[in-house]
Amino acid sequence: MKIFKKIVLPILISVLIEVLVFNFAPLLSMIKNEEPVEFTADELTFVNWEESNNGRLSQTDASIYIENISVNADTLTVHMTAQPQPGSYKLFLAKGGEYFSAENLLVTSNMTGDDSFQLERNISAVCVNLGENVGVELEDISFVFSNSTVELSLSRIVAMLVIWWGTKFLMSLQKAPDYGMEQKTED
User: Fold this and answer.
1) Greatest CA separation found in the chain?
2) How many Å apart are CA 172 and CA 149, to the nearest integer?
3) Cβ distance 98 to 124 under 8 Å?
4) Nearest alpha-carbon partner for 92 in 125, 132, 46
């Protein structure tokens, strides 16, 4: 019973705190059984693109966007099939009634075609701007919004255990003070 109280119980409490506190949003998404939200090329608006044999061909300052959505997610994955694959693009995100602005800009580089970005929740619009990448032939694109999975952090668990055991050790070094206030009993 002493081993359980000194070792197993702090480990269980640390893991429980890790799951319930530090992974609350992904856990809540799992409980609600929220599915990823996908917007395909048919639902997106294309600006400065020309139709081509295999899809669309980008012109100067080509953009792809979707507005008036209400997505509560913390990860956006942009699936883009293009030849040549653009090395970089600008990703604008808007929340609530905001518009696309420099404050909501993510400049990306070394893009692979399946690129994920961490978001703040409640996204109302997304825009991908290729900038000066002229001549990119876009075969397909989609935006997938999802919630991240539960990720247990071993370092946080170890930190909680060090704090727990360190506090227990320091408290064991301290002895109860004697204030000299003994109660006298009458015989």
Assistant:
1) 108
2) 40
3) yes
4) 125
- Residue in the block written with tokens 């030849």: 83
Query: In sequence order, what are the beta bridge partners of 131?
Result: 62
CA nearest to 122, candidates 86, 174, 87, 74: 74
Q: Which residue has the tokens 């997505």?
A: 71
Check whether 186 has a pLDDT greater than 70: no
Rounded to 10 degrees, the C-alpha dihedral 76/42/91/119 comes to -20
Greater model confidence, 7 or 179: 7
With CA atoms as reference, report the closest residue to 143 among 64, 88, 85. 64
Q: Quick one: the chain helix, strand, coil %, rounded to 5?
A: 30, 35, 35
The pair of structure tokens assigned to 177 is 């003070």
Mean pLDDT of 92-114: 71
**In whole angstroms, what is the distance from residue 41 CA to residue 13 CA?**
47
Averaged pLDDT score across all residues of the chain: 83
Rounded Cα–Cα distance for residues 135 and 2 (Å): 71
**Tokens at 112, concatenated:** 């692979």
